[in-house]
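FW: tagging you since you asked about this chain on Friday. Here's the raw sequence from the shared folder, copied in full. Didn't touch anything.
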Amino acid sequence: MGAQGGLVGSTVAIAGLGAAAEEKAVAALGLAGMAASPGGRRGSRALSELLAGRVKKQKCTFESGQELQKAAVHLLSCHQNLNDLLLEVESSSKSTKQSGPETQNAFSGSFVVSILQEQALRLGVPIGILSAKTMATNIEQICKISRESNQAALLNLEQRKKLSYLLQTVKDLLVHNAFCRLLFCQELWKMQNPPVLEVVWHLHRGNIVSLGELLESNSDTPAVVEWLCSSLCLLCKQTDNSSLDVELSGHILSDFVIMFLQNGFQQTSDLGKKIPHICYAVLQKMLTWVLDAVANEKQEDSSKLQAVKCWLNIFTVTMYKSTYFPESLQQFFIHTLTKILTYNPLLKASDAIHMQREWSFARTCPLLTTLYRKLFVAFSAEKLMCHLQQILETHEVNWQHVLSCFSTLVVCQTEAEQLVKDLLSSLLIKAFENYDMENMITAFLIARQAALEGPAVFMSYAEWFKVSFGNASGYHGSCKKALVFLFEFLSELVPFEAPQYLKVHIMHPPFVPTKYRPFLLEYITLAKTRLADLKVAIEDMGLYEDLSSTKEAEQPQSQALEDVEKAIRIFENTGKIPTSVIEASIFRRPYYTSHFIPALLTPRVLPEIPDLRIIFIDSLKRADKIPPNLYSRYIQACHSLKEKLLQDGSIELETDHLKEPVEQLKAELDELIMLITDQSKHDAVPAQIALISERLMTVLGHSHNENEAASFNSRIQLNICAPKLEQQDQYVIDLLLTSFCQNLIAASYFNPPDRQGLFLCLFVKMICGHRHLLPALLTRLCQLIYHQGPSLNDAHVLGLAAFMIHLNESKFLIPEVNIGSKVAAAKGLSVAEYWNHLLVGRTGESLAFCMRFCTAAVAYFLCKFPSLSHDDLCKLLPSGLIKKLQYVVPRLSLEARGIGHEEEAPELSWRALSCPSVNYMKTSLCLWKQTRFQELLKEKPFQLSFREWLLFELEVQPEKDILSVSERQDFHYWALYQWYLPASSASGGCDGNLEKACGILIGTILDFSQRSELDNCGQLEKSEFSVHNRTVNPDILCRLQEMVLELGCRKTSPTGCWNDKGHFLFRIFQERLKTIGNGSAVGERLLRQQEMLLQKRILLSLPPSVLIMMCRRGKKMTLDCEDFFHFVNTELGLLNASLDYEEPAQAVNDVLKRCRTECPIIISSAALWWPRLEPVLCSQWKRLFGAPLAQELQRLRKCQHSATSFLSLEAEFSLSDTPWISVAFLHFTSQQQAAHGRMRDVLKRVGSDTEQLLVCLLFFSLLDLILTRLAPKQGTEVQKSLEWCLEILGCLEEQGISWLALFHSAEKGRGPYQILHSAASDQYVSLLPIAFYSLTPCFHQNLLNREQTFLYVAVDMYTQLLRLYIEEENPQRSDQGGQSLHSVKHVDSLEVITKARRFLLHSIARCPKKSFIHIQQLLDPCEEFDPEVKAALFHSSKPTVAEDFYDEPVLF
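HL: got it, structure written out here
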């Protein structure tokens, strides 16, 4: 059998034999062939013929056939080619394939062993040695082909096939104990070239010879290390050839690296073995290869960088999940991180100060950041930070690697911010404890590096510096030595500092006690000197320059361009020149004139329609902030530029110079979604977001030439009614929002929100980190949600809702927002409040959108954070969303009100919400019924109070409501009587108190009306409540009327009157007015007047019986009008209130009689409006009572008739028993008939009893004069009113009638005319001093002599005039409800005071001594306001003073 095998598997070698032996062999072979070919086959025929000549000459010497056969076998055995034999085993075994694998293997193994045994026996060597040498020779031949084709690490398919046959044979030899491993390893190293790495791996993986055995067998350790490293590098380079090679290379690397780790970082070392040292050295050398490539990234070719990237896969932690040596793995990763941070530490700290900006995450070599991120996975954040601190304290470090490591850490680890802050705190504490400069510089470098990544991941450097050193509790505040140490350190940094850091130290200096201020001043001087050397001056700082900027300090010209753009945007939002520009024009004039104005007036082709820049320039010119000659040169330069371009034919539309950066941004955003959809690459998402941030910074830097200009403390200015956005800004924002929505939908396809990771949150934080992008972002959100919300599809709604949730997470990065509202102007809005203003429900469409958006947002939040505790949930979830849902869901769904059939609530499914055809009504109900949602509604922050519900309902425009009138009425009844009225006040209800409900309803209507009136803008003017356009929401007003009537029927005490607190309605009004106050500032006065007007309109909408209630006093029923009389600015409403009175006419008479003395303004108001009031009164009286008018009403009608007849010359004028009422009717009737022109004749017709008539008429005319000054309709009215007053005063003077009592102070008393002041409002009475000094042309000497009180009144009016002026200049000094001179039109305050003062000083000298009797009490006010007048009064009141002390010409 062995002979047969030899014949099949061998090659016969004849050359080299002796002649006799050769001939014998030939003969034997021929016989053997014939013996082997029965049936006459002459198998050896060809060979016999070939050697025919020799055969014929040779005689056969074998005596028998058996002897001949043995000779042939011997010949074959001596010349067998073992190398080919081992490779041909597979071929020979195929013939026995049908016998099964066990038989096949047994046959092959026994055959090879038999051949090798015979050969070894013949050669006299052990079979194991022979097989090892033969195997090594075969491997060398296989590897030789690879080396010739430059495939030094991997084999080709043919080689792998041959190797496979060879390895199978070796396994058979091992089974028969016919193979020597040690000798085989030694033979491999004796080869001309070491084996190919793939061959070694097959040997290792096939358990033939492990890599450890192979390495131990070579005594030249450096050569082994060199061979392994070069082979590994070649292997990494070959991974991109084919997918098969990539997979194979991965297996080779993982198997070898696992072996390297097990041996190179084992816990207990085996003494005497070389393998641990080799493994450690290989890993170390490969790491050096990686770091060298990183250091020379720009010079290396792409193939090497790709190879390095391949090697970095060994740091993927999941590769070792099947191994059981965590200690070795941790040790390896710690060792790697240490070596990276201490690699080639050539740079000094001073170099790091200069260069660290170039070491940010986005600018660091991607290979290095990838390596960092892979290493971070192996550690907890706390352990990683501890190890970093240990390295910093015990090693000389490579600052570039250390700082780029911290950049990667804060970008990619969400919890790193606080840990870095703790590390900085620890470093600073140690620094000041030991006065250690190394810890100080380390802390400053790390703080600055982390700040370079933006506020989305770490606080700005300016903020960190202020927190650390800006107060007495700072690290330096313990003693003088610590303070000196800090300033020594800062002073040593000065020569190396970048300008922006010096500016931070100067603008936000460390806290220094007063006695140590010289240290600070010395440092500031040094820092300013350094800035001057850098040609950067503090004086040249931009108006909006951000000291926390990560950019290099810019030249003043560049900063001025940024300031101009920022100022124009503020001007666009406010309509006013920014305060910073005004201040710069005064206090920073060198920068303003040398940089800002030239940047603003850069010549350009002016558009046909003035743009914002032109309007802004014109505004500055009108404010004298641009010199006329400079403006003229600018206009001329613009025209010249246009003419030149026209001549060149080069005027065309601007091209998008940002196309390339924007395309790069878009490419990075596209790459992000690819990473998100590939779940194996989620660890690369933070790095990709950092790259997006870098691209975004490039885009924004080009588009706006803008730094981080908007300070966090400055509000974002928006116009919610008409949001405007530059086309480029909108395109960038749309790219970001679209990317967010796509990423959310893509991630939701694979996982629910709680398993999607933090990448969406990180993405939004990245956007918020670009603060100058926030105005454009919020403006675009306003356009999409506030203006286009109902037209958004479901995917947009879902994406924007999720975006809002994450934006609220980053609310600490977003400044307050000013939305252009007059009400909200004093207080900025947080981002959550801003969303509440965007989500309004005025129409059916907007209500449906509000429900969709809030449902999507809350559902996303609950799905995103399912494991949050209830308390944390309440803190993070925006309460406005829950409140909106509480309002809109019951409004649109009967089932949410508990009406109709209620089904079991299904589990809230995110997949159902994110599907394309979501039914939001069903989803909203599903959310509404969730136990977790209902639990939220019990929390105080999420409870929708009655007042908030009313504000939402008042927003709705009934004509555009989705509900019909009856449906809306049903909803109101349910909300009022089933929800809020019985609910406790703790849950936002009314405790079952109807009066409380009415009070909340009235207060809310007034608040909403005030807000709507002040916020009226653009498209909302006709739809919002306006005092001048429409009344309160009629449906809500109906509910108020019903509730008030119900309350009036039952809300009385046993005595039949209201309780001691007074009428609830007037109490509410008075409390609101008290809250507004009586300030003299114009804004406060206007607000109070607006409130009064709104209250009056609510009163007019209520039944009169609500205002004046029936009250039982003893056995008699009377009308209680005390509270009504205190509410002076309202219409008259008496008739209905007297219905239940036994004698209605008597009741009305009693009330009107009391009005004469207690509330005369009602009578004067009736006189003013009598032509319109009389028909209504007469008709209503006749309808209700069918009797003649009450006597007092008839008296008022008679007064009106008398005035009309007198003016028409039909009868004489007769005064009633209350003269001022008759005069009031006469005055107002003459106004209405424009009869001032005939009044001179009329005055001559009055009877002898004219004193009271003329004095009262003068008073009402003075009020008319004041009115024309407050609100003149025509320019001539003031003069006409003044002439009429002088006419009446002339009549009084002719008849010698005293009229000064009209101007007496309240404390002095006004005698019979005191009631007149009660018939006018305080507003008019407070301005009587202006009227008084308007009458000076009629003040003659006989008046001064006749009226003893004239001087007293004149001085009193003068001091009141000065008080009005002071209140105008300093409103906060006054707590009175009076006016100021600012309110009076066509009055120059100083001119009025000057004329009044001149007249008073002149009059003091001319008044008789009796006029000074009561003047003493006015000396103190004069001393406060005008000491010179006091001196004049004091000296003139002395008997010894000469009469001609003030010898001034008579001016009046």
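FW: The chain has a mean pLDDT of 77.
HL: agreed, and The CA atoms of residues 1118 and 1267 lie 38 Å apart.
FW: great, closing this out.
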